[in-house]
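protien #1 (seq + structre)
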Amino acid sequence: MKQTPYPAPLFTLPASDGKVYSLDELKGTWVVLYVYPKDETPGCTIEACSFRDAHTEILKRRAVLLGLSMDDEKSHKAFESKHNLPFPLLSDATGDIIKKYDAWGKKIFGKEGILRRTYIINPSGEVVKVYGRVTPLGHGQQVIDELDTLQR
C-alpha cells in the first residue's frame, strides 16, 4: 500500500440511488470510500450494516460515505433496500477504479479479486487513511474514531 497522504484516484461512477458520483465534485468534503467484494455475501453484509449503524455519526463529522464494488446498480439497489442502507453504493463494472485504489489482488487460495479496504479522503482530495485489513464487525465505529482523530 502507498504511504499516506497521496492524491485519491478520481472517479465518476453510477450509484444505487440513480445518481452519478464524482470524487472531483466532492472536493471540500471528507469522503469515506469503502470497497467490498460482493453484495449479499456474509462479510460484506456485516460491514454494510456496521456502516449503516454508524452513518449518522459519520455525517455529523461532515463526511460522505460511499460503498464501492463491481456489482451493478440493480444488485446494489436490492442490497441497499434489504438492509436499509442510507448511503449510496457505487458500481465499478470494469473494476478499473477498484484497481486504481489498489483494492484488487490475491485473496485466499491465491485467487484474485476485490480486497476489502476502506479509504478516508480529506477535503483536499488526498487519501489520509487506508484500512488494508478490515474486520467487518464494528468497522463503522473504527472509521468514526479515525475521523475524530484526523479532524482535530
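ok now protien #2
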Amino acid sequence: MHPCGNQADYTNGKIVADFNGDGISDYYDTSILYLSNSEGKLENRSQYNLPNLFFEEAHGQIFVHDATYGDLDNDGDLDIFVPISDYTKLGLSSGRD
C-alpha cells in the first residue's frame, strides 16, 4: 500500500500550480502531491494533504486518466479534479498546508 493509501496504477495527468498558496510552484502527479518547502525543494505531502478516499480502488485497479485544477468551490484556493476509471473524485483544498 502507498503511504497515502492506494497509489494509482496507470496515470497520465500531471499538473504544476501553487496549491498551498506560498508563491512557489507545487507538483501533482495524479496520485502524489509534492509541495515546495521554503528552500524550494519538493516534499511528498500526499499523506497529509490528500484524503485516502481520493484513491479508492476501482474494480481492483485504479486508472487515473488526467488531472486538472481550479477554484471549483469559489473559496480562493486551488482544488484538484481527477477523473478515475468510470467515476470521478474531487479533491477540495481546505487551504491548509
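The chain has one helix and nine strands.
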